[in-house]
Amino acid sequence: MNLKVNEIFYSIQGESLYAGLPCIFVRLSGCNLRCVYCDTKYAYDEGIQMPINDIMGQVAAYHCRLVEITGGEPLCQDLTPDLISTLIEKGYTVLLETNGTMDIRCVDNRCIKIMDIKCPGSGESEKNNLNNIEHLTTHDQLKFVITDKNDYVFAKNILAKTCPSPFPVPVLFSPANDLLEPAVLADWILKDGLDVRLQLQLHKIIWPDVERKR
Ligand code: SF4
């Protein structure tokens, strides 16, 4: 039984509360969405089949205990929860980036889930599985990529409807690259006094001309 792997690499974690830390990335192939601002289209199909043992071997080659499983959408592959649990059993801290449309209950509770809620500007907001929000635990994080004011209002309304205040998990608002100025989003957050964290994609600041994270 294999997972289709797009790439495994070592870089700086660029998003989430773990931003800035060295991290091993396991990018799995395939995604069930086609967001208009997607910057990892190369992960839709490209990849090689690898058994979990081989992935573990490549991960072990780096001297780092933080691993992020990303994509694409990692939960499109049935074996992803097994990979996550295997990494955790070996003592790694595991982050999962997921687009919020797949049921997250299959994921080991010890894994730190960074879950998107897709806003209308993505073109995929109809596919959100909002039931996932109640399955997040206190170490997880909820992320909205904001392209414009309409997305900002959408995100605010989702939070008002689904999360009691103060929010049970950290909430990240990230301006979509090249579509919304961070300063504009910062103004909206401050004006509303919203208890969310403005998040910039650190890897794009460090390596602005590089298509991939490194
Ligand atoms: S969910 Fe992520 S990988 Fe999939 S299309 Fe959207 S941005 Fe791209």
Q: How does this model look, in words?
A:
- It is a single chain.
- It is built from five helices and nine strands, in the order βββαβαβββαβαβα.
- The protein is an alpha/beta fold.
- It has a single domain, classed as TIM Barrel, CATH 3.20.20.
- It has a nine-stranded mixed sheet with strand order 3-1-2-4-5-6-7-8-9.
- The longest helix has 14 residues, at 149-162.
- It is globular, with a radius of gyration of 17 Å.
- The model has no long low-confidence stretch (mean pLDDT 95).
- The protein binds iron/sulfur cluster.
- Iron/sulfur cluster is lined by residues 31, 33-35, 38, 40, 71-73, 99.
- Iron/sulfur cluster binds at residues 31, 33-35, 38, 40, 71-73, 99.
Brief sketch in words of this structure:
The chain has one domain: Aldolase class I (TIM Barrel, Alpha-Beta Barrel). Helices cover 23% and strands 24% of the residues. The chain has five helices and nine strands; from the N terminus they run E-E-E-H-E-H-E-E-E-H-E-H-E-H.
How many domains, as an integer?
A: 1
DSSP helix fraction: 10-25%
CATH class: Alpha Beta
The unreliable regions are: none
Structural class label: alpha/beta
Describe the main β-sheet briefly: 9 strands, mixed
Tell me the overall shape.
globular
- CATH superfamily grouping: Aldolase class I
Identify the bound ligands: iron/sulfur cluster
The first-to-last residue Cα distance is 29 Å
Query: What is the overall number of helices?
Result: 5
Number of strands: 9
Second rung of CATH, namely the architecture: Alpha-Beta Barrel
Rg computed from alpha carbons, rounded to a whole number of angstroms: 17 Å
Order of helices and strands: EEEHEHEEEHEHEH
Strand content: 15-25%
